[in-house]
Amino acid sequence: MKSLKIALSMFKMKKWSGGVVIIALAIILVFSYSLMGTRTQKKQSSYDFFRNHPAGDSHLKDNHPAKSPQLELKKATKPSKKPHYINVEGLSDLYAQNNISKDESNALVVWFQMRLLLSRSDALPETNQGIREASIAWKDLLSKIKENKAAQLSNINKTEDKNCPYSVSTIDLTKSSGETILDIPCGLAEDSSISVLGIPDGHSRSFQIEFLGSQLPVESNPPIILQYNVSLPGDNMTEEPFVVQNTWTQEHGWGKEERCPSHRSVNIPKVDGLVLCNEKVVRSTMEENGNASSVGDVSANVSQGIAHERANFPFVEGNAVTATLWVGLEGFHMTVNGRHETSFVYREVRNLNHG
């Protein structure tokens, strides 16, 4: 009986031990299965799927296999096409040497170095359009400058530049028989002038300036357009200094002379707004003569008047003078040492109907 009880108790213990082992294995299996299910669900989540599989490149991955990082690096570092020089419309006009003088080109040294930069094929997109617009503006500016230069030289054309100089001088001329002849190839235009610098010589007592016109084949002597004759005051106070202006033609001879100082009324026509004779000399003489009341006073006042005229006379023996004879619209005008002295109305020296 005791052995039977011991066997039964041992059987019961083995039965419980086996059940515990089975239960433990079942728990382990359930726990492992739950862990594996969680990992599989995490890998198959929609977030991970769409993140790793964009909708637009699914077909690209099928058609183009993945490339190695080395190949991608080589593709990124491959150099682009080398820039070259191109012909830009209007660029040659901006660098035309015939439009720029040598002195003006000194201010464009940097500009000349920019031509290679503007001709590059990789220049900014609007470079070509800007060059075309600049070319048009440059041509317009050059035409304006050319017009201004032509306006300044409107009275001198290209064929007359050498034959009609801007100025002439007697410095290099030689004198013949005490006379100095200055040739003015193209004549005198309005506002032209002739200046004479010298010292009057009392031994000759007079000197003259003559403007001679062109001589025709039928004329033995050229016409005298203006004769400006100066008589210097003598040592005797009774000698009156004067200036006589006149013209001469072969057909009519000498015309009516104009004398300064003039003893005529001061209410006479003016030439280009200027009086025929210096008013200061005329008025001083007339005032002295008007104040005379007797023959003795007249003689005294004549001497005093001559003395005043001599003092106011522009040409004095031994004194340097600068006489400028200039051409106005209505006549000739003489200025001595900066003061207007005489004017002379133009006269017709040749009948235009007879050549």
From TrEMBL:
GO molecular function: carbohydrate binding
SMART domains assigned to the protein according to its UniProt record, in alphabetical order: Gal-bind_lectin
Signal peptide: none
Record keyword Methyltransferase present: no
Example GO biological process: carbohydrate derivative biosynthetic process
Basic and acidic residues composition-biased segments: 56-65
Keywords, comma-separated and alphabetical: Lectin
InterPro entries with a match to the protein in the record: ConA-like_dom_sf, Galectin_CRD
One Pfam family hit: Gal-bind_lectin
UniProt entry tagged with the keyword Acyltransferase: no
Record-linked Gene3D superfamilies: 2.60.120.200
Chain spans, region Disordered: 56-80
Domain called Galectin: residue spans: 180-355
SUPFAM superfamilies xrefs: Concanavalin A-like lectins/glucanases
Protein's name according to its UniProt entry: Galectin
Source organism: Populus davidiana
